[in-house]
Design brief:
By secondary structure, this protein is of the alpha/beta class. The strands form three sheets. Strands 3-4-5-6 form a four-stranded parallel beta sheet. It has a four-stranded parallel beta sheet with strand order 9-8-7-10, sandwiched between helices. 36% of the residues lie in helices and 16% in strands.
């Protein structure tokens, strides 16, 4: 759940909220994350998991050995894995749906260390054999699943990411400029929302692109990054500090989800530098 500070965390929150409208849902969650999970539903049951399994290796072991036992012991109809590009088990006693967000580690060199690279490229494909169905969040991800993991097309379907209709809309309110003042955003800006990670999130490439733009286009405009530091953040910030337009690049750190709609609405441009 990443302490609630990642895209997959937001995906999980929204998915659980939607499922609770018609179903009783159990979610297995590290104890340290429970207080960060804001979903309050009568049909929601939280299964606490020891924080010992927070470490990636321990998390892998939990998914391989303990999750199947948990599913076997309890009277579940389905098991849902919210990010099979990160975690799966070897077998499941119940029908299981896996959600795949991307296989970017096949396209971005040195995204992970050797252990995690081997895990993603060799163990996880084996784990897909016992999944009942796979949901890809884009046709590109579906193609990558076939290309890199040899998953048959008829085992997958594409369901695009949605958004929170109550939170994201075009209606401004009186608090908008208080949020801008909080982040000291006085000039027009371009914004990219993502944890600060290198090389996986393409911050360096975006900084270079911003630098390469004609100065007349970027005059009095800032390039704003909203996201907490992750692996390789120091490299991104060092690159920004050495950029030709370094004084126009801003790092806001982690931005709470309630402030994001304002930052999107007030931006000149939202940038998503995907390969």
């Amino acid at each position: 759940y990443d302490n609630g500070k990642s895209g997959i965390a937001e995906y999980t929150r929204q998915m659980v909220t939607a499922l609770c409208a018609q179903n009783t849902v159990s979610i297995a969650m590290l104890k340290k994350d429970i207080s960060e999970f804001p979903v309050e539903q009568n049909r929601l049951q939280i299964v606490p998991v020891s924080n010992l399994f927070a470490h990636p290796v321990m998390s892998i072991l939990w998914h391989i050995f303990l999750l199947p036992l948990l599913a076997f012991k309890r009277r579940y109809d389905w098991v849902i894995l919210p990010a099979i590009n990160r975690r799966m088990g070897l077998w499941y006693p119940k029908p299981t749906i896996g959600i795949a967000h991307d296989l970017s580690q096949f396209s971005v060199d040195q995204k992970y260390d050797l252990f995690r690279t081997l895990y993603v490229k060799f163990l996880l494909p084996i784990c897909t054999r016992n999944l009942t169905h796979i949901i890809a969040i884009s046709h590109n991800t579906k193609r990558d699943l076939t290309r890199f993991w040899n998953i048959p097309s008829d085992k997958m379907s594409v369901q695009y990411n949605g958004y929170d209709h109550a939170r994201y809309n075009a209606i401004e309110d009186s608090e908008e400029f208080n949020v801008l003042a909080h982040y000291q955003l006085e000039n027009p800006y371009l914004i990219y929302v993502s944890r600060i990670e290198h090389p996986g999130k393409n911050h360096v490439r975006l900084i270079d692109a911003f630098d390469a733009l004609d100065d007349a286009l970027t005059k009095d405009r800032s390039l704003v990054f909203a996201g907490g530091d992750w692996n390789g953040a120091e490299q991104v910030k060092a690159h920004a500090a050495n950029a030709r337009k370094a004084n126009q690049i801003r790092f806001l750190g982690y931005v709470p989800v309630e402030n994001l709609p304002v930052l999107y609405r007030q931006a000149d441009l939202m940038v998503f530098p995907s390969l």
